[in-house]
Amino acid sequence: MDSSSIGKVALFWDESFLWGLIAYDTFTQLSINFGLITSADIQEGILEKYDTLFVPGGWASNKAKALGERGKESIRRFVELGGSYLGFCGGAGLALEHKDGISLVPVTRKPTSDRIPSFSGKIKLNQDEPNHPIWSGIPNKAAFHAWWPGQFSILEHGNVKVLASYDVPGDGSYVADLPVGPTMNWDQWEKSYGTNLNPERIKGEPAVLETDYGKGKVLLSYLHFETPDDNQGQKVLLNIFEYLADKKVQLGQNTASKDEWVTVSNGSGIDKILVETINDLEAAASDLISFGQHNFLWYWRNPWIIQWRRGVRGTEYCTVYSMLKRLALLAPQFSDDSDLIKKTADLKEFSLPFFEKARQLLTLERFAMNRGPISPLKSNDENIRRMREELFSNSKSFGGYFKQIIDRIDAILLPMLKKLLP
Predict the structure, then answer these.
(1) Do 218 and 84 meet the contact criterion of CB atoms below 8 Å apart?
(2) Is the sign of the CA dihedral 201, 193, 107, 403 positive or negative?
(3) Is residue 117 part of a domain?
(4) pTM for this one?
(5) Residue of 294, 343, 288 lying closest to 318 (CA atoms)
(6) How far is CA 267 from the centre of its chain?
(7) Which 3 state secondary structure label does DSSP give 155?
(8) Of 266, 262, 422, 269, nearest to 327 (Cα)?
(9) Cα distance between residue 7 and residue 151, in whole Å
(10) Considering the domain boundaries, does residue 255 fall inside one?
(11) For residues 368 and 393, what is the distance between their CA atoms, to the nearest angstrom?
């Protein structure tokens, strides 16, 4: 590996969406030396230029599909020859042993029937390896953010070091749409929802793992140490990068907010076309978010994620809104890019009907909730089933109309973000 690249991080972008944006923002604010890479880049050998591959959250199965066998083999070779792999949440899931995984670690996923699939918020960690460098300056039992994590199942033949395990939930945490608190009757709620909810089920379960793969290191976490405004989590993140690169991370003084990273132009005629098109899309997405709020289907939990009621899609609507909001912020800088203008026009024509159909679906789901708890995937209402399949597919992850929209947004957003990097 070229010594000049030591300490440089490759941020894997494909199928990360909201989680890719969060990582991009955190890395930029911390002045981490990183580049944005795609599956196509990995297949062409770009990892040779980097020391660490960071894979953010998102559905592991979708990431694996994007990589293909050639991409997955490129990652295995990169780590085997001495590179480091760091995966959070879905990025951790991608490294496991399963049909979609890269098999970097002798670990698989606990089946849904044996885990809590819908925890979110802060949870305390017990440091199983308190002297490990990633915990430098971090007290034991500190709380960090988990956003709907999976759970590790370490195989018997595995040579895996557990760096931390789950302890008790912190303040403001949720399971599904239920706030965690001492008065919750979890047995009753589990019977009502038909799924595991009691957070006691994850206490003592491994949360952060490390192992070797060839000459390289693999570090996986179901905690999101890159969560915005989590100073202690970001300290762990920096500790991890220093540990993996075996080098002190040199930080700049970039403390600007993401709104200050862009320079807004006065706007030519072409510029106004691009900006107005994206602003129309952002307004449509914002109206949909407001519609959900007014119908008591969700509320803003923090500046970047909504808390939604069980039975409706939440991260999906929040993701498309957040990505369009970022496009609106960046658009004024790309006034002369005819390709982006064409893509945004196509995006607008394709997307506006989605927002109207989403309103119709949310209305049907809102009325269904009046009759009792509803499932996010199953329904006895034929209209709800039909519209869910059209907009999101029947997959627990997502597909359908929604997937086509965020892929189109992604094709516009990625080149913009790349051009903003040094």
Answers:
(1) yes
(2) negative
(3) yes
(4) 0.92
(5) 288
(6) 33
(7) coil
(8) 262
(9) 29
(10) no
(11) 19
